[in-house]
Each structure stands twice: as C-alpha cells, then as structure tokens.
Amino acid sequence: MTTTEAIITRSIDARGMACPGPLLNLIGAIRGGQVGDVFEVISSDAGSRTDIPAWTAKAKHELVSVIEEDGYARFIVRKAR
Amino acid sequence: MPARVVVLGGGVGGTLVANLLKKELKADATVTVVDATGMHLYQPGFLYVALDQANALWLTRDERTLLRRDVELVVEKATKIDPLAQTVALERGAPIPYDYLVLATGSRLDREAVPGYDGAHDFYSLDGSLRLREELRRFKGGRVLVGVAGIPYKCPPAPVEFVLMLDEYLRRRGIREKSSVTLLSPLNRAFTIESASKLVQPIFDRQGVGLQTFFNVESVDTRTGTVTSIEGEEAEYDLLVLVPPHRGSPVIETSGLGGQGGWIPTNRETLQHNAHERIFAIGDATDLPISKSGSTAHFEAPVVASRIASLVRGTAPKTAYQGRVMCFLETGGGRATSLRFDYAHPPVPPQPSRLWHWAKWAFNRAYWITVPQGRVG
Q1: Fewer CB under 10 Å: which end of chain B, C or N?
Q2: Residues of B in contact with A54 (CB under 8 A)
Q3: B29-39: per-residue pLDDT in tens?
Q4: CA dist., res. B228 & res. B372, Å (int)
Q5: Helices B12-25 and B294-313: crossing angle, nearest 10°?
Q6: Is residue A57 less than 8 Å (CB to CB) from chain B?
Q7: What is the pTM of this model?
C-alpha cells in the first residue's frame, strides 16, 4: 500500500458503470463527506479524464492525483470546503 | 428442515427474489417477505401522475396479490437486524430467525437534508407527485427550474424526462411562451451517459429548454425564490422541482449494516454483504455505484435467488451479476429512447422514436403481470 492509498477515506470502483457514472458518484461521496476526506474514484470511462478535473476545479475541491493504470484511471480528490 | 429465507422489503427486487426462490426451492425453503406497508408501489408512474398523464390508482397493488401463495407475507416494520444471532426484530411481533437474508429495503427520501427544501416540489413520492400535479394545474407561467438536491438518487434519467415532458405539458396548456424551463444538471451535460446526452441536447435546443451545468443544489431560499449550488452559483425560480436527497433505510443504519448514506456495502458480482456472507442486498439499498432503479433490482433478483438456492443445496453458484440494466428515457413529443448496458458493454441508445415510447407505455401497463413473477428477463 502506498502513502496515497493509506489516507483514502473511501474508494469507489465505478469501472463499467455507465449510469450514474464515475463523476456523479464522486459528487455524491463529496456531498456526504467531511472537509479533508479523500475519495478515490476508479473509472474506465475516457470522459472522466476531462469531466472529473473540470468539476473538481469548478466546485473548488482538490484533485490530488490522477493515476493511469492499464485500461482505467484512479482519481484522488480531497474535499476542500 | 427447510432453509429459512427472509426478504426485507416488498418492492420490485424483494417481490421478484421471493417468488423466484420459492419457485426454485419449493419445500427446501420457507420464504418470508417482511414489508412495512404491504402495499407495492410502481414508482416509475410518479412522473406520469405529476404531469397529469395517469391516475394514481394505477400505481399501487396489495403486495399479497403479487407474491406466490406459498410465500409468507408479514406486514410489519423491521426495526433491527442481528447478523450474529441471524434474526430480524419487528416493531410488534416476535423476532424472525433466518438462514439467509435478502435486504431489499430500498431508499428513503431525506428532504430535511436540504435547507429550504419545503419550498420545492418533487415527483419522487406519490404525495409529492399529487401536490406537483395540483401546482402545475394552477401554474400560469413563469420560471421553472428542475434540479437535483442529492446523489445518489433513483432513476438518473428522470430529471431529463421531466423537463422534456413538462415542455410538452406547458405547450398543451398554452402557457409555454410565458414560461422558461431549465434543467440544473449536476454534470457538465444534460445526462450522465454521453451518447444519450448527445441525443437529447438537440431536443433541448429545438424546444428552447435551458440547461445550466455543474449545478448541484445545496439550499433553497423560499423568501427570495433562489436556489444555490454547492459549486457556489445561484438561480431564481417561480416554480422549483427538485429530486430530493436519498438515504438508505433506517433499519440498515440502526443495525450498523450500512456505510456512508446508509447504503449497504455490497459485492458487485455476488451481491453479498461485504461483511456477512448470509446476507444479500439488492436494488436501491446497495452501495454499488450503479443506477438506483427498478430495472437494476429486476436483473439482480435472479442472481440473488440462484446464489441462495446454490447455498441451500450445497452446490457451486451458477450465476453472477454482470451489471445489467435496461431502461427507457422519454424525450417528449411521444418519443423515447432506450438504454441497455452492463459492466462490459456501454449503452448505445437508438434515436428517439414513437416505438420506444410505446414500448415504455406497454411495459408500464404490463408491469403487474410480468415483472413480480419473473416473466420478463
């Protein structure tokens, strides 16, 4: 386990789940979380690479990292406010 | 001695899993459904009631009439589940012991979670739909906002369907020109599935339906008629329609079986509780990042029934849930499209047509004699 994984509050594996989709799941997790919580969303949807950073910036949360894996990506987001 | 299977919840998932299990196991199991009301509600009909297209009487049936005669129905509120003692406590009667438990406890609306929610209408309950129908009958034109006040929520396409059908309703009433209709989308497009969003965007443009993106409703100020988003923006309304926040069932939270939001931590293929192998979860109640819809429950039910039957008989499980979901999406003007997908296959929605609208309507009408008995799959 890496340091990044050790601090994750909750991980959501949304691979292959077209509806409601990775971003909607992330928004739901952030809405229900506490400031400082860190969420990981695992997505195989190519659109997430633009959608998730765009919403995170708009809603003023912190995109900690995007980790590219084979056929999917892991988005680590901290609830900032 | 027959295995004791208890199903909590008499919605589409609970009813179907109970019927399928009893049909499969016959004398090898007793199957008991525990439901707080004993009335089965067809929730996809709320949309049509709110928009004055259907009578509310069509939406309810006595749960007893939907269950096989050899499935027992207990009309009682379950108050606590003890996974170690393998019992379900009831509000009035004696606790019910189980060998296998299916949690089909659904979701509940948590309107209090949004400040000022009482200034909004919704089509997510029968009462809410009837109130909205009355409000729309009185409506003389103005700014209508339709938004989402919590995630997850049932039937992700519903707000898109609602705005397009509302556009049609206001035209029929002759007050569309005195009104604006805007969808406050939680995302950066009209709908979560990009291919479906591309199909509906031209309809929004043609019908003059507004779209405000990345607007997740946080609070409502009924005094000023303003709604505020968690992204920090505001919008003004004369009539506000919001999808209420949803939570898991109280019995799940009271029993310590839920995670964030009261949703049950569930294995995405076996549909077993992540911490209790004798407990299965189905439909809205799970924490799976998948649609909360009757369709999801419908396709999960045969998997749960088959896996419990295998456990009772001591045989290897034959099926796993592959994420299958199928639903319709009304696009207004008597047209609809359909969405079919699973974990491995993303949806490829067809162009909206009258055919899919009639398919949805036929499904709605045939629901009572097909779905609870497992006649469609």
Answers
A1: N
A2: 188, 214
A3: 999 999 999 99
A4: 41
A5: 30
A6: no
A7: 0.95
